[in-house]
Q: What sequence folds into this?
């Protein structure tokens, strides 16, 4: 019992020091600046990320159904839902 504590306590202290060092490095390198902007950027759909490669239509334009744009839709198949890429 005592022999294992001689290894586990220094190991725990070293792991804590490594974790503290990683946290301080992340603070110094600016990882926590602009958290709100990072949260908003994940919601923005870039034009290159779209399936059909076309930009989003403006609010005044009529949009085509998903089937014609080539986007995937979910269709029921009995009790199983399958993804159908057109």
A:
């Amino acid at each position: 019992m005592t022999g294992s504590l001689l290894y586990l306590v220094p190991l725990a202290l070293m792991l804590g020091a490594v974790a503290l060092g990683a946290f301080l490095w992340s603070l110094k390198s600016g990882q926590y600046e602009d958290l709100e902007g990072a949260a908003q950027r994940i919601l923005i759909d870039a034009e290159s990320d779209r399936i059909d490669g076309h930009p989003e239509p403006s609010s005044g334009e009529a949009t085509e159904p998903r089937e014609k744009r080539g986007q995937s839709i979910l269709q029921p198949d009995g009790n199983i839902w399958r993804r159908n890429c057109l």
User: Anything to note?
Assistant: The chain has a mean pLDDT of 74. Residues 29 and 44 are 25 Å apart (CA to CA). The longest helix spans residues 2-28.
